[in-house]
Structure to design on (408 residues):
Protein backbone atom coordinates (compact mmCIF):
# COMPACT_ATOMS: atom_id res chain seq x y z
CA UNK A 1 0.00 0.00 0.00
CA UNK A 2 1.19 3.47 -0.83
CA UNK A 3 -0.24 6.88 -0.07
CA UNK A 4 0.87 10.46 -0.66
CA UNK A 5 -0.51 13.51 1.09
CA UNK A 6 0.57 17.13 0.89
CA UNK A 7 1.46 18.17 4.41
CA UNK A 8 3.89 20.65 5.97
CA UNK A 9 4.08 22.26 2.53
CA UNK A 10 5.52 19.20 0.79
CA UNK A 11 4.46 15.82 -0.56
CA UNK A 12 4.83 13.05 1.99
CA UNK A 13 4.72 9.48 0.67
CA UNK A 14 4.57 6.31 2.70
CA UNK A 15 4.71 2.86 1.16
CA UNK A 16 4.32 -0.31 3.19
CA UNK A 17 4.67 -3.57 1.26
CA UNK A 18 4.03 -6.02 4.10
CA UNK A 19 0.89 -7.81 2.87
CA UNK A 20 -1.03 -7.30 6.10
CA UNK A 21 -0.73 -3.52 5.93
CA UNK A 22 -3.98 -1.68 6.58
CA UNK A 23 -5.18 1.87 6.08
CA UNK A 24 -4.84 2.48 9.78
CA UNK A 25 -1.03 2.66 9.72
CA UNK A 26 -1.23 5.34 7.03
CA UNK A 27 -3.83 7.34 8.95
CA UNK A 28 -1.78 7.11 12.14
CA UNK A 29 1.42 8.14 10.34
CA UNK A 30 -0.07 11.14 8.55
CA UNK A 31 -1.86 12.22 11.67
CA UNK A 32 1.51 12.23 13.47
CA UNK A 33 2.96 14.52 10.78
CA UNK A 34 -0.07 16.76 11.26
CA UNK A 35 0.52 16.97 15.01
CA UNK A 36 4.17 17.82 14.45
CA UNK A 37 3.32 20.53 11.93
CA UNK A 38 0.86 22.11 14.33
CA UNK A 39 3.41 22.06 17.13
CA UNK A 40 6.50 23.23 15.23
CA UNK A 41 5.28 25.43 12.40
CA UNK A 42 7.07 28.77 12.35
CA UNK A 43 4.14 30.29 10.50
CA UNK A 44 1.08 29.02 12.34
CA UNK A 45 0.12 31.49 15.02
CA UNK A 46 -1.04 28.88 17.47
CA UNK A 47 1.96 26.56 17.17
CA UNK A 48 4.08 26.01 20.22
CA UNK A 49 7.04 27.51 18.35
CA UNK A 50 5.07 30.70 17.70
CA UNK A 51 4.08 30.84 21.36
CA UNK A 52 7.73 30.40 22.28
CA UNK A 53 8.72 33.21 19.93
CA UNK A 54 6.12 35.52 21.46
CA UNK A 55 7.49 34.71 24.89
CA UNK A 56 4.19 33.21 26.00
CA UNK A 57 5.59 30.02 27.48
CA UNK A 58 8.34 29.46 29.99
CA UNK A 59 10.89 26.65 29.50
CA UNK A 60 9.28 24.54 32.24
CA UNK A 61 6.07 24.47 30.23
CA UNK A 62 7.68 23.29 26.97
CA UNK A 63 6.34 20.03 25.58
CA UNK A 64 8.64 17.00 25.60
CA UNK A 65 8.84 17.22 21.80
CA UNK A 66 9.93 20.85 21.91
CA UNK A 67 12.54 20.10 24.56
CA UNK A 68 13.86 17.26 22.40
CA UNK A 69 14.07 19.45 19.32
CA UNK A 70 15.81 22.26 21.20
CA UNK A 71 18.34 19.79 22.58
CA UNK A 72 18.92 18.33 19.13
CA UNK A 73 19.34 21.85 17.75
CA UNK A 74 21.98 22.72 20.32
CA UNK A 75 23.80 19.45 19.66
CA UNK A 76 23.72 20.03 15.91
CA UNK A 77 24.96 23.58 16.25
CA UNK A 78 27.98 22.37 18.22
CA UNK A 79 28.69 19.41 15.92
CA UNK A 80 28.58 21.60 12.84
CA UNK A 81 30.58 24.47 14.30
CA UNK A 82 27.64 26.84 14.06
CA UNK A 83 26.64 25.96 10.50
CA UNK A 84 23.29 24.72 11.63
CA UNK A 85 21.41 27.20 13.76
CA UNK A 86 17.67 27.28 14.29
CA UNK A 87 17.87 30.83 15.61
CA UNK A 88 17.01 33.26 12.82
CA UNK A 89 18.90 36.53 12.29
CA UNK A 90 15.97 38.21 14.06
CA UNK A 91 16.59 36.06 17.12
CA UNK A 92 13.55 33.85 16.64
CA UNK A 93 13.44 30.08 16.88
CA UNK A 94 12.67 28.32 13.60
CA UNK A 95 13.29 24.59 13.89
CA UNK A 96 11.78 23.67 10.47
CA UNK A 97 15.13 22.51 9.11
CA UNK A 98 15.45 20.03 11.93
CA UNK A 99 11.88 18.86 12.33
CA UNK A 100 11.47 17.15 8.97
CA UNK A 101 14.13 14.46 9.43
CA UNK A 102 13.18 14.04 13.07
CA UNK A 103 9.52 13.52 12.12
CA UNK A 104 10.43 10.98 9.39
CA UNK A 105 12.42 9.01 11.95
CA UNK A 106 9.59 9.08 14.49
CA UNK A 107 7.01 7.98 11.92
CA UNK A 108 9.32 5.17 10.78
CA UNK A 109 9.56 4.06 14.41
CA UNK A 110 5.77 4.22 14.72
CA UNK A 111 5.42 1.97 11.66
CA UNK A 112 8.03 -0.47 13.00
CA UNK A 113 6.29 -0.52 16.38
CA UNK A 114 3.12 -1.57 14.56
CA UNK A 115 5.04 -4.65 13.34
CA UNK A 116 5.87 -3.65 9.77
CA UNK A 117 9.29 -4.39 8.33
CA UNK A 118 9.25 -3.42 4.65
CA UNK A 119 8.43 0.22 4.04
CA UNK A 120 9.71 3.70 3.38
CA UNK A 121 8.74 7.17 4.52
CA UNK A 122 9.53 10.00 2.09
CA UNK A 123 8.94 13.60 3.16
CA UNK A 124 9.95 16.25 0.67
CA UNK A 125 12.41 13.82 -0.96
CA UNK A 126 14.20 12.91 2.25
CA UNK A 127 13.56 9.26 2.90
CA UNK A 128 14.03 6.48 5.42
CA UNK A 129 14.11 2.93 4.03
CA UNK A 130 13.40 -0.33 5.82
CA UNK A 131 13.44 -3.92 4.60
CA UNK A 132 12.76 -4.57 0.94
CA UNK A 133 10.45 -3.38 -1.81
CA UNK A 134 7.45 -5.13 -3.35
CA UNK A 135 9.61 -7.31 -5.58
CA UNK A 136 11.84 -8.45 -2.72
CA UNK A 137 14.79 -6.26 -3.67
CA UNK A 138 16.40 -3.52 -1.63
CA UNK A 139 14.67 -0.17 -2.01
CA UNK A 140 16.36 2.10 -4.53
CA UNK A 141 16.58 5.88 -4.34
CA UNK A 142 17.56 7.94 -7.37
CA UNK A 143 19.44 11.16 -6.71
CA UNK A 144 17.71 13.83 -8.76
CA UNK A 145 19.65 15.50 -11.55
CA UNK A 146 20.10 19.04 -10.26
CA UNK A 147 20.55 20.39 -13.79
CA UNK A 148 17.37 19.00 -15.28
CA UNK A 149 13.88 20.45 -15.25
CA UNK A 150 12.67 16.88 -15.58
CA UNK A 151 11.94 15.83 -12.02
CA UNK A 152 12.42 12.18 -12.92
CA UNK A 153 15.93 12.65 -14.28
CA UNK A 154 18.46 11.05 -11.93
CA UNK A 155 22.23 10.84 -11.83
CA UNK A 156 22.90 8.11 -9.27
CA UNK A 157 21.07 5.22 -7.67
CA UNK A 158 21.62 4.41 -4.01
CA UNK A 159 20.25 1.43 -2.18
CA UNK A 160 20.28 -0.16 1.25
CA UNK A 161 18.15 -1.05 4.21
CA UNK A 162 17.51 0.63 7.56
CA UNK A 163 19.06 3.82 6.23
CA UNK A 164 18.10 7.43 5.72
CA UNK A 165 18.89 9.32 2.52
CA UNK A 166 18.73 13.12 2.72
CA UNK A 167 19.54 15.65 0.03
CA UNK A 168 20.17 19.34 0.46
CA UNK A 169 20.50 21.55 -2.52
CA UNK A 170 18.99 24.10 -4.75
CA UNK A 171 18.35 24.79 -8.38
CA UNK A 172 18.19 28.50 -7.79
CA UNK A 173 21.26 30.55 -7.27
CA UNK A 174 20.89 32.38 -4.01
CA UNK A 175 22.75 35.34 -2.72
CA UNK A 176 26.37 34.65 -2.07
CA UNK A 177 27.78 33.84 1.30
CA UNK A 178 31.38 33.96 2.32
CA UNK A 179 33.51 31.87 4.53
CA UNK A 180 34.53 34.46 7.13
CA UNK A 181 37.91 32.78 7.64
CA UNK A 182 39.27 33.25 4.15
CA UNK A 183 36.72 35.60 2.60
CA UNK A 184 36.11 33.19 -0.25
CA UNK A 185 32.65 32.59 -1.55
CA UNK A 186 31.21 29.21 -0.59
CA UNK A 187 27.60 29.34 -1.68
CA UNK A 188 26.75 28.48 -5.24
CA UNK A 189 29.62 26.07 -5.82
CA UNK A 190 27.53 23.14 -4.73
CA UNK A 191 24.12 22.35 -6.15
CA UNK A 192 23.30 19.05 -4.45
CA UNK A 193 24.58 17.13 -1.44
CA UNK A 194 23.18 13.74 -0.49
CA UNK A 195 23.94 12.18 2.87
CA UNK A 196 23.28 8.55 3.78
CA UNK A 197 23.38 7.17 7.31
CA UNK A 198 21.53 4.84 9.60
CA UNK A 199 19.25 7.63 10.78
CA UNK A 200 17.38 10.03 8.51
CA UNK A 201 17.25 12.49 11.39
CA UNK A 202 21.04 12.71 11.52
CA UNK A 203 21.50 12.43 7.75
CA UNK A 204 19.13 15.35 7.23
CA UNK A 205 20.72 17.70 9.72
CA UNK A 206 24.23 16.85 8.53
CA UNK A 207 23.19 17.32 4.90
CA UNK A 208 21.77 20.74 5.70
CA UNK A 209 24.86 21.85 7.59
CA UNK A 210 27.32 20.36 5.10
CA UNK A 211 25.58 22.07 2.19
CA UNK A 212 26.24 25.41 3.87
CA UNK A 213 29.95 24.58 4.00
CA UNK A 214 30.23 24.70 0.22
CA UNK A 215 32.78 22.37 -1.34
CA UNK A 216 34.20 21.46 2.06
CA UNK A 217 30.87 19.96 3.09
CA UNK A 218 31.81 16.59 1.62
CA UNK A 219 34.91 16.54 3.82
CA UNK A 220 32.77 17.22 6.86
CA UNK A 221 30.68 14.16 5.88
CA UNK A 222 33.85 12.13 5.21
CA UNK A 223 34.97 12.84 8.74
CA UNK A 224 31.69 11.68 10.30
CA UNK A 225 31.57 8.09 11.43
CA UNK A 226 28.66 6.17 9.92
CA UNK A 227 27.71 8.68 7.22
CA UNK A 228 28.51 8.80 3.53
CA UNK A 229 27.91 11.55 1.00
CA UNK A 230 27.63 12.41 -2.68
CA UNK A 231 28.14 16.05 -3.61
CA UNK A 232 27.50 17.63 -7.01
CA UNK A 233 29.08 20.96 -7.87
CA UNK A 234 27.87 23.53 -10.36
CA UNK A 235 30.16 22.10 -13.05
CA UNK A 236 28.43 18.73 -12.80
CA UNK A 237 31.36 17.10 -11.02
CA UNK A 238 30.41 14.74 -8.22
CA UNK A 239 32.62 14.00 -5.22
CA UNK A 240 31.88 10.99 -3.04
CA UNK A 241 33.08 9.90 0.38
CA UNK A 242 35.25 6.79 0.63
CA UNK A 243 32.45 4.51 1.86
CA UNK A 244 29.75 5.79 -0.48
CA UNK A 245 30.14 2.97 -2.99
CA UNK A 246 28.70 0.43 -0.57
CA UNK A 247 25.31 2.13 -1.15
CA UNK A 248 25.52 2.08 -4.94
CA UNK A 249 24.41 -0.69 -7.25
CA UNK B 1 32.06 21.72 -18.91
CA UNK B 2 30.91 24.97 -20.47
CA UNK B 3 27.67 23.28 -21.50
CA UNK B 4 26.90 22.32 -17.96
CA UNK B 5 27.52 25.87 -16.84
CA UNK B 6 25.29 27.11 -19.57
CA UNK B 7 22.71 24.54 -18.54
CA UNK B 8 22.78 25.74 -14.96
CA UNK B 9 22.52 29.32 -16.07
CA UNK B 10 19.60 28.38 -18.29
CA UNK B 11 17.89 26.58 -15.46
CA UNK B 12 17.92 29.81 -13.45
CA UNK B 13 16.21 31.52 -16.34
CA UNK B 14 13.79 28.62 -16.69
CA UNK B 15 12.61 29.09 -13.14
CA UNK B 16 11.70 32.67 -14.00
CA UNK B 17 9.98 31.43 -17.14
CA UNK B 18 8.02 28.94 -15.08
CA UNK B 19 6.89 31.72 -12.79
CA UNK B 20 6.00 33.93 -15.72
CA UNK B 21 4.06 31.10 -17.33
CA UNK B 22 2.14 30.86 -14.09
CA UNK B 23 1.44 34.59 -14.24
CA UNK B 24 0.28 34.25 -17.82
CA UNK B 25 -2.48 31.92 -16.79
CA UNK B 26 -3.92 34.59 -14.57
CA UNK B 27 -3.44 37.69 -16.69
CA UNK B 28 -4.18 38.33 -20.30
CA UNK B 29 -3.96 42.00 -21.05
CA UNK B 30 -1.10 43.84 -22.68
CA UNK B 31 2.24 42.26 -23.52
CA UNK B 32 5.21 44.12 -22.13
CA UNK B 33 8.84 43.22 -21.96
CA UNK B 34 10.19 42.48 -18.52
CA UNK B 35 13.92 42.32 -17.94
CA UNK B 36 14.68 39.46 -15.60
CA UNK B 37 17.87 39.87 -13.69
CA UNK B 38 19.82 36.84 -12.67
CA UNK B 39 20.87 36.64 -9.05
CA UNK B 40 24.30 35.33 -9.93
CA UNK B 41 27.35 37.39 -9.10
CA UNK B 42 29.45 39.03 -11.72
CA UNK B 43 32.26 36.58 -10.94
CA UNK B 44 29.98 33.71 -11.91
CA UNK B 45 28.82 35.50 -15.00
CA UNK B 46 32.38 35.88 -16.08
CA UNK B 47 33.12 32.23 -15.54
CA UNK B 48 29.99 31.23 -17.39
CA UNK B 49 30.90 33.68 -20.11
CA UNK B 50 27.33 34.20 -21.23
CA UNK B 51 26.64 37.77 -22.25
CA UNK B 52 22.94 37.50 -21.62
CA UNK B 53 22.17 36.59 -18.02
CA UNK B 54 19.99 39.70 -18.11
CA UNK B 55 17.42 38.61 -20.60
CA UNK B 56 14.33 40.39 -21.79
CA UNK B 57 11.48 37.94 -21.54
CA UNK B 58 8.10 38.42 -23.10
CA UNK B 59 5.40 38.30 -20.51
CA UNK B 60 1.94 39.64 -20.06
CA UNK B 61 1.21 42.21 -17.45
CA UNK B 62 -1.35 44.90 -17.16
CA UNK B 63 0.39 48.12 -18.11
CA UNK B 64 1.09 50.17 -15.03
CA UNK B 65 0.42 47.13 -12.93
CA UNK B 66 3.42 47.74 -10.71
CA UNK B 67 4.28 50.89 -8.82
CA UNK B 68 7.95 51.83 -8.76
CA UNK B 69 9.75 50.97 -5.57
CA UNK B 70 11.09 48.03 -3.63
CA UNK B 71 8.79 45.40 -2.21
CA UNK B 72 9.58 42.61 0.16
CA UNK B 73 7.88 39.26 -0.20
CA UNK B 74 6.83 37.06 2.69
CA UNK B 75 9.26 34.72 4.39
CA UNK B 76 8.40 31.33 2.95
CA UNK B 77 9.39 28.15 4.69
CA UNK B 78 11.37 25.92 2.33
CA UNK B 79 11.64 23.37 5.13
CA UNK B 80 15.37 23.46 5.29
CA UNK B 81 15.38 27.16 5.74
CA UNK B 82 13.52 30.27 4.73
CA UNK B 83 13.28 32.03 1.42
CA UNK B 84 12.45 35.70 1.20
CA UNK B 85 12.89 37.96 -1.80
CA UNK B 86 12.81 41.70 -2.41
CA UNK B 87 11.80 42.96 -5.85
CA UNK B 88 12.69 46.29 -7.39
CA UNK B 89 10.20 47.88 -9.75
CA UNK B 90 11.39 50.65 -12.04
CA UNK B 91 9.37 52.21 -14.83
CA UNK B 92 6.55 49.84 -13.92
CA UNK B 93 8.76 46.85 -14.64
CA UNK B 94 10.40 44.22 -12.53
CA UNK B 95 14.12 44.98 -12.73
CA UNK B 96 15.67 43.06 -9.85
CA UNK B 97 15.04 40.20 -7.49
CA UNK B 98 17.24 40.02 -4.42
CA UNK B 99 17.33 37.26 -1.82
CA UNK B 100 16.98 38.59 1.71
CA UNK B 101 16.93 35.16 3.22
CA UNK B 102 18.02 31.89 1.81
CA UNK B 103 18.46 28.44 3.28
CA UNK B 104 21.72 27.56 4.98
CA UNK B 105 23.21 31.00 4.90
CA UNK B 106 23.83 31.46 8.58
CA UNK B 107 27.37 30.27 8.52
CA UNK B 108 29.77 31.48 11.11
CA UNK B 109 33.02 29.63 10.61
CA UNK B 110 34.71 26.60 9.14
CA UNK B 111 36.82 24.02 10.94
CA UNK B 112 37.45 21.33 8.39
CA UNK B 113 40.55 19.49 7.38
CA UNK B 114 40.64 20.59 3.77
CA UNK B 115 43.60 18.27 3.06
CA UNK B 116 41.15 15.38 2.68
CA UNK B 117 39.63 16.79 -0.52
CA UNK B 118 42.17 15.45 -3.08
CA UNK B 119 41.69 11.89 -1.88
CA UNK B 120 37.97 11.71 -2.52
CA UNK B 121 36.77 10.08 -5.72
CA UNK B 122 35.30 12.42 -8.31
CA UNK B 123 33.28 11.77 -11.44
CA UNK B 124 31.31 13.72 -14.00
CA UNK B 125 27.63 13.08 -13.41
CA UNK B 126 25.59 11.42 -16.14
CA UNK B 127 21.83 11.35 -16.41
CA UNK B 128 20.39 7.86 -16.00
CA UNK B 129 17.06 6.34 -16.80
CA UNK B 130 17.17 3.52 -14.23
CA UNK B 131 13.91 2.53 -12.58
CA UNK B 132 13.95 3.48 -8.92
CA UNK B 133 11.44 3.28 -6.07
CA UNK B 134 11.92 6.84 -4.86
CA UNK B 135 13.58 9.97 -6.21
CA UNK B 136 15.46 12.04 -3.68
CA UNK B 137 16.47 15.64 -4.09
CA UNK B 138 15.88 19.12 -2.85
CA UNK B 139 13.07 20.85 -4.63
CA UNK B 140 11.19 22.81 -2.04
CA UNK B 141 13.11 26.00 -2.47
CA UNK B 142 11.89 26.77 -5.96
CA UNK B 143 8.29 26.64 -4.79
CA UNK B 144 9.11 28.79 -1.79
CA UNK B 145 10.91 31.23 -4.08
CA UNK B 146 7.88 31.58 -6.32
CA UNK B 147 5.63 32.09 -3.33
CA UNK B 148 7.77 34.87 -1.88
CA UNK B 149 8.18 36.47 -5.30
CA UNK B 150 4.44 36.31 -5.89
CA UNK B 151 3.85 38.01 -2.54
CA UNK B 152 6.32 40.78 -3.34
CA UNK B 153 4.75 41.40 -6.75
CA UNK B 154 1.27 41.48 -5.24
CA UNK B 155 2.46 44.33 -3.00
CA UNK B 156 3.93 46.10 -6.01
CA UNK B 157 0.62 46.12 -7.87
CA UNK B 158 -0.81 49.56 -8.36
CA UNK B 159 -3.99 49.97 -6.40
Amino acid sequence: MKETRIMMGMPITIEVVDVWATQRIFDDSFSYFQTIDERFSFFKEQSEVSQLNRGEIVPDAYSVDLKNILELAEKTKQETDGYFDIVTPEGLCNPSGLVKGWAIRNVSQLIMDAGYKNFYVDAGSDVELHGKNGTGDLWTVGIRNPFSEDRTSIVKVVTGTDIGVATSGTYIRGRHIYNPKDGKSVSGEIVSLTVIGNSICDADRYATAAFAMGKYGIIFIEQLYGFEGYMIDRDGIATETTGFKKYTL
Amino acid sequence: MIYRKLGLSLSVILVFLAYIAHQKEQQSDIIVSTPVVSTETSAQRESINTPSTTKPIQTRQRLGQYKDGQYTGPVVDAYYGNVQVKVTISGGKLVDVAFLDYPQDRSTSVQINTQAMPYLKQEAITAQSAQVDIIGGATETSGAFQKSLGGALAKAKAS
The two ends of chain B are 47 Å apart (CA to CA). Residues 24-63, 104-111 of chain B have pLDDT under 50 and may be disordered. Helices of chain B lie at 2-26, 42-48, 140-156.
